[in-house]
Amino acid sequence: MKMGRSSYKWISLAAASLLAAALAGCNGGSSSSGDSGGAAPPVTGGTTPAGNAVVTAAAANPAATNTAANPNQAFGLIVDAGASPVVIQSPPVVTFAVIDSAGKHVPGLTLFNANGASVDPNCSGNNVTFAIAKFDGSNWQSLISRQRLAANTATQFAVVEGTTDPKPTATLTNPATAASDPITRVVGILEENAAGGYYTYRFAMDVSTPLLMANAAAGKNFASTSTAVNKIANNGNLAVKDGKTIHRVGVQLCYTDPASKAKVVVNPYIDFTLGADGVAVPVKASDGKTLAAYRKVVDKDSCNECHATLTAHGTRVDPNYCVICHNPGSTDYHTNNPVDFKLMIHKFHMGTGSLPEGQKGLSKDYTVAEFTARATDPVTGAVSGPKYPQTVQNCVKCHDGSATATHKTAQGDNWKNVPSRNACGACHDGIDFATGKGATIGSTYPGHIGGAQSDDSKCVLCHDATGIPVYHKDTMPSTADASKRTMSATISKVAVGATDGSVTVTFSVTDNGVPVTDKTKFTSVSFALAKLAPATNGSSTHWVSYTSRFRTKDATKAPVLQGNKETNGTLSVNSDGTFSYKFALDNASTPGDIRTISHARVLRSVGPTTATTIGTWTWNPTAKTWTEATTTGGANTGPNTVAYEPTLTHRVAMEFQKVGTTNVDNATNAYFDFVPAGGAVTSTRNIVTMNNCSVCHGGVKLHEGYATELCVTCHNQGTSDPFTGATVDLQTFVHKLHRGKDLPSVVAGGSYKINGIDFGKGTYPGNIKDCAAACHKETATKADGKTLLENAANWRTTPTKRACGSCHDSTDATTHIESQIYQGVEQCTFCHGATTTFGLDVKSVHSK
Fold this sequence. Notes:
Helix 8 (341-350) runs parallel beside helix 10 (421-427) and helix 15 runs parallel beside helix 19 (801-807). Mean pLDDT is 89; it is low at 1-34 and 220-228. The relative contact order is 0.07. The protein has 22 helices and 39 strands. Strands 3, 4, 10, 11, 12 and 13 form a six-stranded antiparallel beta sheet that branches. Strands 19, 20, 21, 26 and 27 form a five-stranded antiparallel beta sheet that branches. Strands 22, 23, 33, 34 and 35 form a five-stranded antiparallel beta sheet that branches. By secondary structure, it is an alpha+beta fold.
């Protein structure tokens, strides 16, 4: 096969590298970039920013030009200065600016620093990496590919994958001629023009002349951590200079902001066409001035609602950069699974537990590198992997092109407008589109009703923008779609009888805003009643339920106390169209009297096959009852005294269903705080709102509730899991289940199971240290959208054993916490409170 000049370049890399090392030493030449010197040739037809135009513009408006806040201004400043950021006449040449928070040029960026992390310890001395792709009408295609050969065939595969332009390493450098003669260039070159306030990057890969993998030289390992033999080539994917084809250049950019000293990781990118002269014409918004993305299906801010700064491979933080390499044809080196971005991300989010019962076998296992989205045990058949925190039918959580979208993108409605085998088949992977056989989610039809499909051209004929939502967003269960839950309640008053201790709740109901006065229109009404116990001994306030129960789901364990709601009170219609509910309070020694709560009943008696005594409990297998030695309530009850303290804050919370062909839950859970003795409520406990939870959980029903204000009435101190006996105090178990597999106790070989579910295998999608990012937002409001949460700052002002010890549950941490309890009083705030002088306050050590 005849080889062109570019082909010879790759055959001669080894000699060139050795020559460069001999001439330039391990630093490879330029002290500022780690690249070889030599005069770079001018770019024909290209321009560079005139004078100090970039510097002036950056200083004039730091808020807008700061690269950390507005990454794409890295190219926008160049365009505004009248220059073209990209020129492709052989290897691409890119001009870009990096501006700090004070509006000044960030100096000294490098491709490689031979002295390790001394230049920029936040980024290990490695600041810049470039990638380039073109859009073929359906998919991005990387113009730079890497072939990795399997060094260990037992664990590795020979694959081709999109990749970045090669950079210098300790052993891979440019010859002295690299800048002036691109044919001899081995790795990219970074040049700084400090006076002009910009950088120029010269690619090593020529994307104008074909270089197939077959013609590329083997043995050039550009991934220093890999043991495989690599080849780098454009593999025939070339830049197209037709003035129409869209290209994208993107940057992995990491640096320390000289003004704020903050670490910055961003991915600036620019979309453009190329004229015959190879000079980029940037895509611009409708105003004809600002830069715009030609193709943007997902906005990174949508990802960050859950991932709280999405980060992959260290410096990939924007999906619109990721697609440059993760495109069709790229496969995973470790599993040979495809890593096309849309397919891979859909499979990651599909995970486990998202399929309807009876259809679990319709989703295939999927692993890439070290991340397993779904795995089936070959012996037990057990499925493991992360679970998406809401229904996967809610496509618009990530993709939304509607006018009202919070993070609207130009192609945000592609999920319904542009169906494809790759994107749709990621979740509907029980179908073999090549044969038309298999089975798919939500259908009993055997195989693909449309038969075999060799391409995507016919997908939209059956699956159009009208039909796709019917089987996705429109068919979401009412427990995950608030728009289908139209009935709401408002509690207006709670009265405690002065002579009989009775508790009566007054509430109104509406359906789509229309008053409901007929109590047969709703059903399954249940009420919880709790009081707020004051903070004592260094701990925090906590709710105590009057309507608790005992329960066990393990025949070898005695019943444990659980918070509960009651349903057997008296529901009445008032003359004004409101309703009243009078609590039964059968936990009281005088039923109905809140002043005499003395015991709790055992629900769903489970026990051994023979008479057994466990602790203070005795099981009667004939009567199927538990009897507790010290109870005052008789068989199937246990002692649970709750003192009535009428000057403390109390809470009533409720749930119900609208009567229908299928009953539907209430829109949310109504609650009402009150002081039985009268007067205003001056103390409550509202730390997290379900509005915060819904950012990731999408408003789905979490266990029994839609409002944390209801959850806390049951999940309070002293309540336990009926399987294991572990606490289900809300602040403890919610912290634990979110940390999941990263709990120190789990890492040490333990497990964390609640209600029979192993949460020790879960994965939190964001930075678990950043408490305020998603959960503990101090700007969060209650359901009314106006009133701030009273106790939103507790996460940093009131560190306690119960809250902090839930995540910090290693043996050493637990020992430390226990050692700081002096004469029964927790001392956590002394070192970790907001006013500590030790620098160990919760806010300081729990941040990004």
